[in-house]
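Standup, Tuesday
Yesterday: got the pipeline producing structure tokens again.
Today: sanity-check two examples.
Blockers: none.

Example 1:
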Amino acid sequence: MVELLRSNDVVLLSFAEAILTQAGFSPFISDTNMSILDGSIAAIPRRLLVAEEEAAEAKATLDEALKAAEEQARNAPEE
């Protein structure tokens, strides 16, 4: 397994997992239980993993989706 993302941001991890799953990959979020056990101190980030043979394509897919989301947020009208 290859790590694509390490974060305590559950929204980011959920977004990344959904993007990769929708693209046909089989992502796995590890350290979820350990992260929950540490409480709110954020000492143990969760890791998004994919199979080694999928890593390059999955990383490109995730990078593209994150870039598009950042661009969309940047261009969103302010309220």
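Example 2:
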Amino acid sequence: MALNSFDITSGFNKAEVNNVFEQTKRELQTRYDLKNSNADISWLDNQAGFKIIADNEWQIETIIEIIRKKLAARNLSQQLVDVSKDNITSNLKTTKEIPIKQVLSKEDVAQLSKIIRPEFSKVKLIPSGDYLRVESSSRDELQKVISFIKNKDLGFAVNFTNYK
């Protein structure tokens, strides 16, 4: 019997994230509450995330909300961006770096295995570094796993790839 599989990763569509960046930058230029301020957004090195510069923490939070709205409009997970880093204030400016989570950690892969295993005994789980491969002889079973994972609040973004 043929074996079907897919990988659970934390990848994302770079073009969509680039669109989020461009739309946020455009909105910053037109927002009335941010006019005549130093509010700006730029890329971190290698487009690994966003760097926000503003006059105060309120503006930082406003820009983060704009980013979240743009992510939602493009059906991207809010958990794709890591807003846990502290704001840095110096020279009357506040800066915040928001990295984009690009890979699953070993703990994330273990958490996925832990929640899938009790629900789906017929699937085979193969942890492999920064992704989890799910195998089964039944495509229906794989579809059920995908649906199950999509309905869980995991604390990190997931993407399903290499469906064969």
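Quick observation on example 2: The longest helix spans residues 14-30. The chain has two domains: 4-11+103-161, 14-99.
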